[in-house]
Write a structure and sequence with these properties.
heterotrimer, A: 219 residues, alpha+beta, Arc Repressor Mutant, subunit A, 3-stranded antiparallel sheet, 9 helices, 35% helix, 11% strand, C: 265 residues, 4 strands, extended
Chain lengths: 219, 219, 265
Amino acid sequence: MSNTPQDVDNELDPSLFEAPPMGEQERMVEAVLFASAEPVTIKELTARLPHGSEPAVALVHLEKRYEGRGVRLTRIGDAFAFRTAPDMSFLMRRETVETRKLSRAAIETLAIIAYHQPVTRAEIEEIRGVGVSRGTIDQLLEMEWIRIGRRRMTPGRPVTFVVTEGFLDHFSLESARDLPGLKELRAAGLLDNRPPPEAQTAEPEGRSEGDLFEDGDEA
Amino acid sequence: MSNTPQDVDNELDPSLFEAPPMGEQERMVEAVLFASAEPVTIKELTARLPHGSEPAVALVHLEKRYEGRGVRLTRIGDAFAFRTAPDMSFLMRRETVETRKLSRAAIETLAIIAYHQPVTRAEIEEIRGVGVSRGTIDQLLEMEWIRIGRRRMTPGRPVTFVVTEGFLDHFSLESARDLPGLKELRAAGLLDNRPPPEAQTAEPEGRSEGDLFEDGDEA
Amino acid sequence: MPETPDPQSNNVEDISARRAAEALIVDVDGFEGPLDLLLMLSRTQKVDLRRVSVLALAEQYLSFVDKAKALRIELAADYLVMAAWLAFLKSRLLLPPDPEDEGPSGEDLAAHLAFQLERLEAMRDAAARLMARDRLGRDVFSRGQPETVGRVRRTQFTASLLDLMQAYARLRTKDEFRPFVMDRKAILTMEEALARMRPLIGFAGDWTDLSSYLPEGWQVDPAKRRSATAATFAAVLELAKAGKVELRQTETFAPISLRKRSEER
C-alpha cells in the first residue's frame, strides 16, 4: 500500500475542502468495498472518496479492524475486496458455485502461464512436451484467468500469455509473486528457459529471470 | 430473537459436541450474512451453524460490533443482512452502472479499427461488406475506445480512426500490436468454431441481444 | 495411477510393477504426450529425478513402444518420434564419443531430458498446489448481495477481448463459412445419406455403382451432385465400417461400387 493518493490528480485543486477525518474515510472505504462483489482499486477509491482522502491509509486501518473476523480484507493486485475467511467455507455449501471442471491439460497450462509468465504458446508446449490442444487457451481466456501480454521480441513476434487479476482473486493471491513455491522453483532453475543442447548456436533469447515478473508495464 | 435453537431438530442428537464459543459463532454469522445473496433468517442460521449455536445471541453481538461502521447489520422482516450505512449512500452512486454488451455492428467496427488502424470509414465498410452507421462510430468515439487519427493523404483526405489508451486498458492489452493474428486465432481454436447462430442468414430468433442495440445499419 | 508397491516385499513389487506395465499398455490414451509417459516411467525407478538413469528410461520407453506395437496399439506420431530420438540417445550414451561428431554429447542430451522431466514434474506439482488453494466460490466468498443504492444510472457498453477477436475472426473468414450458411439447400448431410442408404442396401446383392444411389433430383446440378456424392460415399464408408456392405474400386478414379455383405444375416 504505497500509492499516496495526493499525487494522483489533485494538483490543480488545492484543498478547498478538508478531507474527512480518517475514521470517516475508513467507514467510506468499508462501505464501498462491502457494496461491491468485485475488487476495487485504490485508484477507484481515490476517485470516489471526497477530495483529499487517503484510501491507502484507511485500508491499513480497515485491514487491522477485520483481522480474525469472519470476513477479511484481502488484497488482489492493486485492488481490495472483502472475502469470507477460508475457515468459514464449511458454512457456505449453499453459496458454493460449481466451477467448470478444468481438464488436466488446462490446469497444467494455467500453472505454466502463472509461473513462467509472460510465456508463449511454443514455450508452454515445450514444457508439457505436447501440443496445447485447441480450446484450452480459449477456455482460460474465456474464464478471464489469462490474458494476452506483450509480444515477445523474437522472430515471429509471438504473443505471450499472462495471468489476470481474476486469476489472483480466484486463487486468493495478492500478486503473482505469491504463487506457492515460486521462490524454490526459481532457485532450482526450474523456471529457466533452458534451450535444448541442439540449439547451442541459437540466440540466447534475451530472457533473463527478471523478465518473468515484469511489472513496469503499467504505462 | 426468541427461537432457542435447541428445539429445532436436534432431539435425535443430544449435544455430543460442544457448541463453538460465542466469538466463533459471531464470526460464522458474519460470514454467512456477508456471502448470502438474500437476507438470512434466524431459523436458517440455526440450521447452518454447528449444533448448539445460538445465532440470536451472536446477532446481538454482531449488531453492536457494526454500530457506527460504514456497514450495518439490519433486520428485514424476519431476516438479517448487512447494508451500507445510510449516510454512505452518496458513495454508492457510481455502483449503478448498467453494462450492456456492444452491438454486433459496433464490436465488428471496433475489431476492424483495432486490427487495421489507422483505417478510414470506407475501408471499414469494405471489410464488413455493409455500411457503417454514424451512430456506431459516434458510440465508439463517445466511449473513448476510438479516436480520430491522421487524415489519409488520398483524394478527399478522409479521416482515419485509431484505438485509444482507454481501449487498450479495457481489453487489458499492452498495445494494439499484441492482438493475436488470424493464424493465432485459429491456433487458439477461435476460428474453427462453427459460425455463431446470428451468422446464419438473418433469422429473427438468432438475434436476441444484439437486436436491442441495433443501430439500423444492417437492415 | 498404479498403487504404490509395498517396499517390504519383492514379490508384491513385482506384481504391481507388472500391473503398472500392463496399465500403461492399455491406457495410452491417458497420457498427455511422450514426455508425460516418460515421467510416469521414471517413477518406477524411485529416485530423485535429478539422478534418474536416462539410459534405463530410454530402454523402458522403447520396450513400451515395442509392446504397444506387439499389441497393435496405434501410437500417435509424437510417441514414435520420441522413440526414435531415445534410440539415438541410447546409442550416443553407449558408444564412445566420436571426436568427428559435432553435435552435443549424449550426456548433454540426457541431462536436458532429465531437466525437462524435472521441470514438468515441478509444474505438475505447482498446478496441484495452485488448485488446492483457497478458491473463490469454494473456500472464500464474495459479497452475496452487492448493493446499488444510488439512483444515478449510466449505461456503459462493454465487450470482452474474446468478443472482439471472435468478431474479427468472423469477418475475416466470412468466405470460408459461406457454404455452410448460405448454401444449405444444396447440401446433403451424411446423416441424411445414411438414413437413405440403410434401407436400400438390403437390395444390393450384386455390385452396384455408388452413383446409382444418389437421391432423386441430386444428379444434375453439379453442386448438388458433388454434395450428394460426398455424403453418400461417407455414408457408405460408415456402413462398410459397420460390416454391412463391401466396397470395391478397380483402379484409381474408377467408379466405386458396393454390395451387401454376404455374411449379413
